[in-house]
Amino acid sequence: MKRSEVNSKTITKLVKRGISRRIAEQLTGAYPEEVINQKTEVFDFLVESNSKMVKNNPPGFLRKSIEDDYAIPPNYVSQQEKELRDQKIADNEKHRRWQEKVEQYRRHLNTTPESLVYGQTMLWEIAYKKENNNTAPSPSEKAAKQQELIDLLPEPKELQKQIFGQVIFTAQTAEQLEQELIKLPRDQRRKDERITRQDGERGERRVNKNDLIKTLS
């Protein structure tokens, strides 16, 4: 990027923060771009955090911080640190959602079909009694209704589509699911080891469970 283009962007950055164009041009000509960028980033942090340091005269503070090389406040969090922190929070949230989905699928595999439809069967029985003068359904009628509801339960693959948005596991039992949860990152790693890096940089790309969770959340 040409020097004039750099200066123009730096001037615009200062003007947007309340400094006059004339002063912005003077500062840009007198101080390195990296210094102005750092002071601007600190200034933005102080404004966002409602610091008293910039309350009375924000543009004046920014100008003096550049001219007098103000020290960085001890509570300052750089943009890069903020992005890393936000990314960690986002990753943790994805991990939490993934765990919730796995637990939902695990509960389904751990629960008998009869238990899965128990609530619906009870509601049907209550409705039956209301429609038949408080007469309970016969055992055979109740068993037939229960089987009808069981037949409507989604198959494991269909349930996975509902929970995860795609089929991930072949597990039909909770025990099989635990085994697949252990193997899944390893299988994904084998696949990714065949991927070479671009821009002339070659190597293996390691994938851990968190990486996998990102792709599936």
Commentary on this structure:
Helix 3 packs antiparallel against helix 4 (58-67). The protein folds into two domains: 3-67; 79-117 and 153-216, no CATH class. The protein has helices spanning 3-16, 21-30, 33-48, 58-67, 79-110, 113-116, 118-131, 139-151, 156-164, 174-192, 209-216. By secondary structure, the chain is mainly α.
Task: Set down the secondary structure blueprint.
Elements: H1 3-16, H2 21-30, H3 33-48, H4 58-67, H5 79-110, H6 113-116, H7 118-131, H8 139-151, H9 156-164, H10 174-192, H11 209-216
Helix pairs in contact: 1-2, 1-3, 3-4, 5-9, 5-11, 7-8
- Helix count equals 11
Judging from the principal axes of the Cα atoms, what is the shape? elongated
The biggest beta sheet reads:
none
> How would you classify the quaternary structure?
single chain
Strands, count: 0
Q: What does the average pLDDT come to?
A: 84
**Could you tell me the strand content as a percent range?**
under 5%
Q: Are there runs of 5+ residues with pLDDT below 50, and where?
A: 187-217
The total tally of domains equals 2
Which structural class best describes the helix and strand composition? mainly alpha
The N- and C-terminal alpha carbons lie at a distance of 39 Å
What is the string of helix and strand elements?
A: HHHHHHHHHHH
User: Which value, in Å, is the CA radius of gyration?
Assistant: 31 Å
Helix content: 55-70%
